[in-house]
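Practice record 12: protein with protoporphyrin IX containing FE.
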Amino acid sequence: MEGLSLYDRIGGEETLRLLTDRFYDHVFAHELISRLFKSNKDEIKEKQRLFLTQFLGGPALYSEVFGHPRLRARHIPHTITEEDAIAWLTCMDRAISALTISDELKKELFGRFPQSALFMVNS
Ligand code: HEM
């Protein structure tokens, strides 16, 4: 599988649909961070699926629709603490754990998030 993107190796679109579905179920139920999510759950799931597709090396679906991600700037309107980032990562870890991919791939996939999550901390 050398040369294939992480997006392809985890199973592409089907896996990302499952992942974003479960991830936001955890986020919207989370006692600390659910307060931050005010828009429609299906819309944010879909935005995140488009974003993660390109973030993991698949086609640039998010940018085709929304332009440059500028993720830190897009998060500025939301007050995000380090504690929120850790909660976000915990939700992602749980969603990744439930996927039917190898433990090695789970580890590699989760490893893509901590740095970006801490980068969104703005309070
Ligand atoms: C550090 C913890 C994080 C918190 C608390 C957080 C919170 C939020 C919130 C509140 C929104 C707006 C949701 C809405 O419209 O209701 C959002 C949007 C978004 N977040 Fe995060 N986020 C975090 C980290 C991340 C990370 C690490 C990524 C990517 C790897 C990410 C990707 C996105 C994307 C793609 C959107 C949609 C942006 C748009 O087009 O409007 N977020 N996030």
